[in-house]
Structure formats: structure tokens, C-alpha cells
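pinned: reference chain
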Amino acid sequence: SRDKKIYQKSSLYYARQKDLYKIKGKKDVQEASGSDKPAVDEFIKSNRLNLNNDSDLIRVFEYINSQKTD
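pinned: its C-alpha cells
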């Protein structure tokens, strides 16, 4: 008999104005940061964040959002 496997897959999105964008990798995170790209890259490196980890990705977007309100 054939073994069947079920995989659970989740997708993450960010909103800009009225549009939703899917996050596939680092390039999408950088795009979300807009003109703050060098600062976001430095934040990721200095905090040793892994963008494949949901909690690290949340920290990056919290940082991006905090920069946009200043």
C-alpha cells in the first residue's frame, strides 16, 4: 500500500495600502521595507534573525513598522 502524507503549509502576507503581498523570502521583506532597506538588512544581521522563523519575521516587521511611524 502507498503511504500518504499530509503537509500543512502556511503563507504570510503583508499589507501596503489596500493591497496584500505574499512573503516568499528575504527579497519580499526588503521590498516591504521600502527605502529603509539598508537599515532593515542591518537589523536582521545584528539580531541574527532567520527569516524562515515566524517569530523572527514578526520582529522584522515590527521593526519596519516602528521606523515608518517615526
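why pinned: The first strand starts at residue 12 and ends at 16. Helices lie at 26-33, 37-46, 54-69.
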